[in-house]
Amino acid sequence: MEALPTLGVYVNADVTMKVHVTTIVHSCFAALRRIRSVRRVLPRHALLTLVRALIVSKVDYCSSLLARMSVQLHDWLQSVLSAASRLIFTTRRTDHIFLLLRDLHLLHVKFKLCVLAYGCLQGTSPMTST
Prior knowledge:
The protein is mainly α. It has one domain (4-122). Helices cover 58% and strands 5% of the residues. It contains 5 helices and 2 strands. The protein has a two-stranded antiparallel ribbon. Strand 1 and strand 2 form a beta hairpin.
């Protein structure tokens, strides 16, 4: 059965979110390739702005739906954030990435879900209008 986008989220019949994550990963890596082509002429703060606008926004969108995703899907999403930080700092694939992610304030995918849940429990999450 084909997955159809609803509000930009692809949900397939078995609700594994594989189609959604695959779509995000492919579009983010395509955006990273375009950003890489202009990386040398842009200052770091401009690169960071592009990454937040074109990459992080896609990864964050509807991230609460990804709470029960598999480890493989989680690793795919995390690879996007890791590649984005490597692009900004021009590091090799073998270099440690944790400190770069921390410096850029790019939170781990699962950590974002924990922050969202904590905000809901504490009553500090945004109110929805009914």
